[in-house]
Specification:
By secondary structure, this protein is of the alpha/beta class. It is built from nine helices and 13 strands.
């Protein structure tokens, strides 16, 4: 039986560090106000002339170097993003050109903050079906490009970044992606959106003036949604994998809010110190969130060979899902 093994990873953090004090114009004592509610101290913003593809390319090159393979060995590139360079063509095709992956086909997936776990689901299935051997999976977003910087409920939450992994076929049944769980509920689509950004409500001078071309989120409803599906992801994946939560070495949650992490810890009875996080340094990087934390901890040696790790994403769509991985 074929499994999908992660053989390399890479990251990209924009150079610009944006501390909470940047938002003093929105709220008094911004650092304490933001940190106490979210766990965020700072985040990174891309340059005005730096598109999502540039971050994705840097992360992809890092993953190739980490895996010790050339770009010509890649069969497929799947890029998870909700901030593509443009509405068409797919940003993944720009990445393909820049890294020289001449033998790959490339496409984007947009499941907002769930995008990376969705890309991994696709990569895993492409490999398991036997048609492809090596897939480059990327999560990349530049939310600084779409934020409403007059909205204190959303603007301080997000940062930019990219993470990438190389997924390759293995015949070791005890290693790699052991099982997955993916779900969507379209009834909740209005809760997270950019209202004027496509054919439903095309961009006009009026929608720009009304700030409808920027990110909107119904925070309280999204928090309720997340705290309902997070225990479900853990329960289902552990059951499918034949393990208990206590058997997990680490959980990599979507980096949305420290209060959600606290909730997961208490609900699952899983020690908080075994959650892998970069929320304080990066904020919510949407599609890059899980990918960045995974790549960081592979590179620094915290995730070791043999470790059992559960990853999860949840966000717009509504969408949610996770992976159980043996490294």
């Amino acid at each position: 039986m074929m499994n999908s093994e992660i053989i390399g990873s890479g990251t990209c953090y924009p150079d610009r560090v944006v501390p909470n004090s940047f938002f003093e114009y929105l709220v008094k004592d911004a650092d304490e106000w933001i940190f106490s509610r979210t766990g965020i101290r700072e985040r990174r913003f891309a340059r005005d002339d730096q598109p999502t593809s540039e971050l994705a390319v840097t992360a992809a090159r890092g993953a190739l170097a980490s895996a010790g393979i050339g770009a010509e060995e890649i069969d497929c590139i799947v890029l998870g993003t909700s901030t593509p360079d443009m509405s068409l063509p797919a940003t993944a095709c720009i990445v393909q050109k820049e890294i020289g992956a001449k033998n790959a086909f490339a496409f984007d997936i947009n499941s907002v903050c769930s995008s990376f776990v969705y890309t991994m689901e696709v990569a895993d299935n492409f490999i398991r079906c036997g048609k492809y051997r090596t897939v480059l999976a990327i999560g990349a977003d530049t939310y600084s490009k779409i934020l409403d910087f007059e909205d204190r409920s959303t603007a301080p939450l997000f940062g930019d970044g990219a993470g990438a992994v190389i997924v390759r076929r293995t015949e070791n049944p005890d290693k790699g992606i052991l099982c997955t769980y993916m779900r969507s509920d379209g009834h909740g689509w209005p809760l997270i959106q950019v209202p004027s950004s496509g054919s439903r409500k095309p961009v006009t001078q009026a929608t720009i003036a009304a700030r409808e071309t920027t990110f909107k989120m119904a925070g309280k409803q999204v928090y309720i949604f997340a705290t309902e599906v997070i225990p479900e992801i853990i329960e289902v994946l552990c059951k499918k994998g034949g393990v208990a939560p206590s058997d997990l070495d680490y959980i990599i949650p979507h980096q949305a809010n420290v209060r959600m992490i606290d909730f997961i810890s208490k609900k699952a009875g899983f020690p908080k110190e075994r959650f892998l996080l970069n929320l304080d340094r990066c904020g919510n990087t949407s599609a890059a969130s899980v990918a960045l934390v995974m790549a960081e901890n592979m590179a620094n040696g915290r995730i070791k060979s043999g470790d059992l790790v559960l990853t999860m994403g949840f966000g717009g769509g509504l969408s949610w899902g996770g992976l159980l991985i043996r490294f």
